[in-house]
Automatic annotation (TrEMBL):
The active site is located at the dimer interface. Its cofactor is Zn(2+); Mg(2+); Co(2+). Belongs to the PdxA family. Substrate binds at residues 139-140, 282, 291, 300. Binds 1 divalent metal cation per subunit. Can use ions such as Zn(2+), Mg(2+) or Co(2+). NCBIfam families: pdxA, PRK05312.1. It is found in: Cytoplasm. PANTHER family: 4-HYDROXYTHREONINE-4-PHOSPHATE DEHYDROGENASE, D-THREONATE 4-PHOSPHATE DEHYDROGENASE. InterPro entries: PdxA, PdxA_fam. It comes from the Bacteria. Catalyzes the NAD(P)-dependent oxidation of 4-(phosphooxy)-L-threonine (HTP) into 2-amino-3-oxo-4-(phosphooxy)butyric acid which spontaneously decarboxylates to form 3-amino-2-oxopropyl phosphate (AHAP). This is 4-hydroxythreonine-4-phosphate dehydrogenase. Pathway: Cofactor biosynthesis; pyridoxine 5'-phosphate biosynthesis; pyridoxine 5'-phosphate from D-erythrose 4-phosphate: step 4/5.
Length: 340
């Protein structure tokens, strides 16, 4: 088997969320969308029940990695991982957490061992996994831990939301807003920007990426009058980055860096906290933005949205962001292969 025919590994996500729905819908339109082949890792029975709920006629075939690409024209290839619990669309349950986590672990193992090309994850509900004792804020940190355990090396994962109109990176991710100033350091800003610059070149082909760095405070601190972090942390970090040859500039007032003309001046916005990055990303492209994890030894993408429990089994969930995630993983994998 050559790399060109390896499938992407798609984890089921929370099986009571919209992951099964959007996987079925994307698969149903695979020819028109020119979708790369993917191997769904999860519970085939959940998919069959969901297809019936959605009134879709989809062939589902249990297989391993080797058989997936050839099957893709005729049936949705599934690496079976039974959930071992009753799964009801729109009704999350802690008993499903084990299957949710196992699917992510399997997708990573397969990709690190070269049997699949990239990891694409369907959404998980953080609160359900926390209730089950999951020790990570989300996929992003869990994936870095899995990579570290598999390779014996540490990895710093970086979240990037990427769409046709904006790429945006939060330096701090899933922490309470009151903890953001304390969690931000000059080193964390420098490290995040270095990873972003390196991966935009190695994974996306941008030779000299331009990084626009947001301030933390209103008006980027107004010269220190409205908060000191912009002058004390961000400005020194930017000096270090420019000394290292990285085109990073700021700190920019965050309220004026996302309008149409402002966005032409940079390739990625580096933001100080989750909502500073994800609000503009989702406002400018909820249906076509992708959540990418940078800094890992494998490719990982995901739709930008969550489990949308209220839509599971209704036929109202749109599959576009998952389609964008599959296509981005495919393009990144082909770009990496062409460079080697
Ligand atoms: N990558 C991941 O695993 C992510 C997981 N989440 C998790 O999802 C759960 C629900 O989070 P929410 O904040 O409610 O965000 P959400 O993205 O699930 O839903 C937000 C709104 O967008 C709608 N929506 C979401 N996806 C849609 C789609 N494909 N088509 C049409 N409408 C869609 C929902 O119905 C809702 O009105 C949380 O537990 C959160 O942790 C949230 C974001 C990403
Ligand atoms: N808000 C983004 C999100 O929740 C996705 O996080 P992750 O599971 O990809 O780490």
């Amino acid at each position: 088997m050559t790399d060109a025919v390896l499938p992407l590994a798609l984890s089921q996500g929370d099986p009571s969320g919209i992951g099964p729905d959007i996987a079925l819908q994307a698969f149903a339109h695979r020819a028109a969308l020119d979708l790369p082949a993917f191997l769904y890792i999860g519970d085939p029975e959940v998919l069959k029940v969901r297809a019936r709920q959605l009134d879709m006629s989809v062939s589902i075939a249990e297989t391993d990695c080797e058989g997936a690409t050839a099957l893709f024209a005729d049936a949705l290839p599934v690496l079976p991982l039974p959930t071992g619990s009753d799964v009801l669309a729109g009704k999350p349950h802690v008993a499903n957490a084990r299957g949710t986590i196992a699917a992510i672990e399997t997708a990573v193992q397969l990709t690190l061992s070269g049997k699949t090309r990239a990891v694409v994850t369907n959404p998980i509900a953080k609160s359900v996994l926390y209730e089950a004792g999951f020790g990570f804020p989300g996929h992003t940190e869990f994936l870095a831990d899995l990579a570290a355990r598999a390779t014996g090396q540490p990895f710093v994962p970086v979240m990037m939301l990427a769409g046709p109109k904006l790429r945006a990176v939060p330096v701090t991710i899933h922490i309470p807003i009151k903890d953001v100033p304390g969690a931000l350091t000059e080193d964390s800003i420098v490290e995040t920007c270095r990873i972003v610059a390196a991966d935009l070149t190695s994974r996306f082909g941008l030779a000299h990426p331009r990084l626009a760095v947001a301030g933390l405070n209103p008006h980027a601190g107004e010269g220190g009058a409205i908060g000191t972090e912009d002058e004390d942390l961000i400005r020194p970090a930017l000096r270090r980055l420019r000394d290292a040859g990285i085109d990073a500039f700021g700190p920019l007032p965050a309220d004026t860096m996302f309008h149409d003309e402002a966005r032409t001046r940079y390739d990625v916005a580096i933001c100080m906290y989750h909502d500073q990055a994800l609000i503009p990303a989702k406002a400018l492209g909820f249906d076509d933005s992708v959540n990418v994890t940078l800094g890992l030894p494998f490719i990982r993408t995901s739709p930008d949205h969550g489990t949308a429990f209220g839509l599971a089994g209704t036929g109202l969930a749109r599959e576009q962001s998952l389609v964008a995630a599959l296509k981005m993983a495919d393009a990144m994998s082909r770009f990496s292969k062409d460079r080697t």
